[in-house]
Amino acid sequence: MTKVKAALFGLAFGDALGAPTEFMRYEEIIERYGERGPRDLPPRGLVTDDTQMTLAVASSLVDALAHPPLTAHALEPLLRDRFVVWLADPENNRAPGNTCLAACAALREGRPWWKATVHGSKGCGANMRVAPMGLAPGLTDDERAGAAQLQAAMTHGHPTGLAASELSALAVRWLLDGLPVAELPAALRARCESQREVYRTDWLGDDLWRRPMVDSPSQFIATGWDECLSVLTGLEDQVRYVGPDADPCVAGGAGWVAEEALATALYCLLLFPDSPLDAVARAAASSGDSDSIASLAGGMAGAVHGVDAWPADWYGRIEYRDDLNRYAAAWS
Ligand SMILES: [Mg+2]
C-alpha cells in the first residue's frame, strides 16, 4: 500500500526536483547544487507537465476501471477528455512538450486519435506520464501493456514511444511486486525480445502502423522494441564506467526521447539501489530532460522503497498532493 503512494509522490518529487534543472547545463547544476544534485524540495514544491499529465492518465484509468473490463474503447474517450482538459488548464504553463500540445489540440477538434497523434514523435511525453498503468492493482500484464501503449499512441505515434511506455509501466509494476532493481534491466531486455513482433491491434487499431516504408504491423512495432533494447543494453556496465559523480545522461542518453528517459532514470536507480533520494537527486542533476528523468526515477524508487523513501515533510509540500493522495488511496 505504502509503495503505491511512495511511487505516486516519488514521481512528483522527482519532477519538482528536476524542474529547475531541465534547461540548465550540467556544470551549472553542479555549481548550484553540488556534485550529487538537488536534494531538497523547493518550498512551494511546484511540479511540471509530467505530473499534471500523470494525474490526467490516473483519472482516466480510475474511471475506466469503475466499469470493467478495461478496453481501448472504454479508455480512449476518457484519456481524450482529460488530455483536452489539461490542454486548457491555466496551470499548463510548465514547459509542456510540443508534441503533447499539438496532439491534444487535434484531439480537442474531435479527430480520431490515430490522426491526431504526432506520428514521428517518440518524445518522453509518451512515458513520463504512464506510471498509473503500472500502479493500478489487479490488471494483467497484457492490460497494462495495452493501456500504456494506447495512452502513448494518442499523442506520440512513433513505435519507440509505445514500447518505452509499456516498459516504463511494467518496470514500476515489477518493482512493486518485489523484483530487485539489479534484475530490472535484464527483465526489460527480455520483454523487448519477447514482444518484438507483437502489435496490439486490440488496443492500437489497424491504422497507426500504416506509415511510409512500413509493410506490416509487426515490422512497425519491432522498430520500437529494437531501439529500447539498444539503449538498455550494457546499462549495468555503465554504473562502473561512468559512476555516481558524473552526468547520468552519459550512460543512458539525454532523455528527450522516450527510451533514453527510461534508460537514464533506470541507470540512476542502479547507481543507488538502496538510496532513493540519491537516485532522484542524481536524475535531477542531469544535462538532459531532468524533470522527466527524475520523475521516472522517483516513481520507480518509490515503488521499491515505500513511503519512508522520501522526507516526511515533502508529502505536505508537493503540489497536487490531494490528487496524489486520492489515487494512492484508490490503488492501495
Ligand atoms: Mg516537464
TrEMBL record:
Taxonomy, superkingdom: Bacteria
InterPro entries named in the record: ADP-ribosylglycohydrolase, Ribosyl_crysJ1, Ribosyl_crysJ1_sf
Gene3D superfamilies from the UniProt entry: ADP-ribosylation/Crystallin J1 (1.10.4080.10)
SUPFAM superfamilies named among the record's database cross-references: ADP-ribosylglycohydrolase
Leader sequence residues: none
This protein's name: ADP-ribosylglycohydrolase family protein
Annotated source species: Dactylosporangium salmoneum
